[in-house]
Fold this protein.
Amino acid sequence: MDRSSHPRSRRLVPIVAVAAAAALTLAGCSSSSGGKKSEDNGAAASAGKANTPRMTVALVTHQSPGDTFWDIVRKGAEAAAAKDNIKLIYSADPNAGNQSNLVQNAIDQKVDGIAVTLAKPDAMKAVVGKAKAANIPVVGLNSGVSDWKKLGLLEFFGQDETVAGEALGNRLNSEGAKKAVCVIQEQGNVGLTQRCDGVKKTFTGKTEVLYVNGTDAPSVKSTITAKLKQDSSIDYVVALGAPVALIAVQSVSDAGSKAKIATFDLNKDLTGAISKGTIQFAVDQQPYLQGYLAIDSLWLYKNNGNYSGGGEQPVLTGPAFVDKSNVAQVAQFAAKGTR
């Protein structure tokens, strides 16, 4: 199906992108899929279980070993696959070349659809083109909001990382921060770079970037600790992922620093840290929803020719602040691995 044939009037305007830079609120949502089973395949999804022909879909991410964020993405994808009668093939590699090879493997298996992250979009361009040439629909999620249309993907599900960074920078201003260190755990990841750039844009204090090896927890801890010991004027550590934020709690203690900690992304342990006050707040992008929508969108395209966002606009799943005022509400879902 030619995406260009869809009228532009059907675009869905991403409201979050308009408002998030000024103020963020908790994005708490839930859904249910009740109702009587329909004899019509097109209506079957509303009954909670599709009776459409079996599909095979590949989800290929840049997950690093031990990064629990992606467990939440995968859980959402698996839920959608179970509902839609889809065989889900999950694979991941933080190395862009290896991730590209995983997409090629999916093409060789003649899957019915591919969902992919674009942390390093230039490295994925060629293989996405091969998928398109093989008439395999490709959607993006999580990373690549600035590049998915350039690469010709059908849809994108995630957050605008620059907007999220700008919002965090404004929050630091309201917290009275003067100097922040933004910790990037994977060099070359465009989404992480955009987050720190967004913080720099709106934060009126001084921002420094600190690179760490996110796959080596002891190294992350020692690098942050050393930085805090070296510069006692740092009053906020900005982590770009929950595992790094939790390590930073230890670094602050070891360094004898008075710095506070903020982060992007959540997990069960991090909601507990917010409750205790060892981490001040997090910016949530709802990874479960990203995985769920990416897989469900391929079912919708295959069976109904549907496009979320009209094929022109990203579908934004965040950002939203989680702090002491609302963490209890979020924690109940984080405990189940869905936030």
About this structure: The CA atoms of residues 164 and 266 lie 14 Å apart. Residues 161-284 form a domain with the Rossmann fold fold (CATH 3.40.50.2300). The two ends are 34 Å apart (CA to CA).
